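Lecture 7 notes: from sequence to structure.

We start with a single chain of 477 residues. Read the sequence below before looking at the structure.
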Amino acid sequence: MADVEKYFDLVNQDQQAFIETLREVVAIPSVSGDAARRPDVVRMGEWLQARWEALGATCKRVDPGKQNLHGEILDLPPVILGQYGNDPNKKTVLVYGHYDVQPALIEDGWETDPFVLVEKEDGRLVGRGSTDDKGPVLGWLLCAETHKKAGIEMPVNLKFCFEGMEESGSEGLDEIIVEEADKWFKGTDVVCISDNYWLGKNKPCLTHGLRGVSYFHLQVEGPGADLHSGVFGGTVHEPMTDLVHLLSKLVDVNGKIQVPGIYDQVMPITDEEEETYNNLEFSHTALASDLKNDVLIHAEERDTLKHRWRFPTLSIHGVEGAFYASGDKTVIPAKVRGKFSLRTVPNMEPAKVAELVTKYLNDEFAKLGSKNKMQVIETHGGRWWYSSPKHPNFVAGAKATEKVYGVKPDLTREGGSIPVTLTFEENLNVNVLLLPMGASDDGAHSINEKIDKRNYIEGIKLLGAYLHEVANTDLSA
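Now the structure, written as tokens:
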């Protein structure tokens, strides 16, 4: 306890230095989806490696290979593996994060240059990557550096895996994790990821579930070329008419999926799970304010959360091949592709989801009697992830949260997906904890992304406190 308090005191003293370090890395525009920025992504990875090595960590740079980005062949940015400490008497914690960021231009609507960190009077630290995920990635580094500066022995062996392609599909990462599972990652006791957010703006949380995602293209093809509607309207089966009809059959206006059998695989709600919805920091009023309009479907807040976290949903995203520019154009498109996805939950399997969706759309298309051709194409089938919040790794995270913030954390799940969570769990056979640093209103991926100074500084304390709690926790319990 004395070591933890000493660590907290030094974190408080070095707040401004930590902000300046965040400013330094935000200034590196490591946008993985922009070919012109690829050298900056590499530079960011090299910055991390150099800083860890200066601390005394052993690092290994792994180059995942090549990528075809819009016809241009590029080197994938390096995955930086590292180890800090190798005491066989200590537990080993593996941490993951990413050092790439989303694109950002001031003309998108940013109040300030997105790659210049600005400290606002209200405590916001505004800049691209501040919360997603440079702030948390720095948190682990600054935690280790602060322990060394304070003369406090690290309570665990720390391994890390930092990638530069998370915002662009994590290309090559799964293969590296599989390859290194019994090599670099051997001996890992638990994994901790800080790459998500609190449910609200004030109360911390631990996240123990993520939905999977299955993505589909629904293609309808008719004539050999686009047609003039004045000449051919009413004389041919129009692909767009067929497509709109089929898309309308997938989900109703209240979000209920219409595909037969899709809910049969869903894990029933247990009494234990029902209790996790009590006293969460979540309100419809705040959510409607964030949405700038009250367009919520459900009357009860816990029903909204259940449909956000633990029930499957289906969303329609767009149409390729149709006229979408401003103005009028009387064209009948020859081939169109509708895009939609399902967010999946325990215990849904992607293969079964694809089977049900394909059969249903084939059956509905057959009812039309159309002479067009229809095809269902699954482009992605990512699985869900779920962990018990009673696992000792989560208990350690909860104790650390209470020590830093003085409250018990909310136990949450999320509607989005972090595929690497499942990759680590399945290949290393260890528990994974999601321990967020940022708040719900940080605006990751959006304009004016920020992390609050409070979350950044207290988050650095939280990561350190968590490592001390893990060191004193029986992980086999």
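The first strand starts at residue 58 and ends at 62. Keep this in mind for problem set 3.
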